[in-house]
Structures are given as structure tokens and as C-alpha cells.
Amino acid sequence: MNKAELQELIQVHGDTEYLKKSYNSLMKNYMKQYIAIKNGNLIAHHKDIGVLLKSIRDKRIDPATVLIEFLHPKDMRLIL
User: Fold this and answer.
1) Would you call 41 helix, strand, or coil by DSSP?
2) Can you give the pLDDT at residue 78?
3) Is the model's pTM score more than 0.90?
4) Of 27, 41, 71, 77, which sits most exposed with the smallest number of CB within 10 A?
């Protein structure tokens, strides 16, 4: 593993920790929306994934380097 890959893993871990720590607050404010987290910060949110991705790109951030989650209600059922 090279230095860049290690840094990316550390960032993903930090962003996941932020999501876990802030989950209740995020759910309260952004339920039924996609959220984007980078470097332990919420950088974008929207109900439409396309709009969210455009917002991320407009900030000159590669979406592949961002933790993106959909905050669905607990009673929502997903059919795969």
C-alpha cells in the first residue's frame, strides 16, 4: 500500500466516524436526502443524487473521494 492509498483509507475512516457520531443530527436535518461527507465535514446534501454530484463537482472535488449516503427513514423498505 502506498502513501496515497493509506491517506485515502484514513480519510474514509474519519468520514465514517463523523457519519456515525453525527447520525441523529443528520437524520433530523437531512432525512430522505443524499449527503456528502469529506474530511469530516458535510459538504453537500440534496434529495436528487444528480444535483448532489453536480454540487460536489462544482466545488472541484472528485465524487469518488467523498462518502455519499442516503438518509432513509427507519420504516423505509428497499426492494432489491
Assistant:
1) strand
2) 60
3) no
4) 77
Structural domain of 37: 3-70
Q: Cell match 432513509: residue?
A: 72
Q: Cell numbers of 67, please? A: 462518502
Longest CA–CA span in the chain (Å) reads: 42
How many domains does the chain divide into? Answer: 1
Is residue 75 situated within a structural domain? no
- Cell 492509498 belongs to residue: 5
Residue 80 has a pLDDT of: 65
- What amino acid is encoded at 61 in this protein? I
Query: Does residue 33 fall inside a structural domain?
Result: yes
The answer to whether 64 and 29 have CB atoms below 8 angstroms apart is no
- Torsion sign (Cα): 48, 52, 57, 62: negative
Q: Does 71 have pLDDT greater than 70?
A: yes
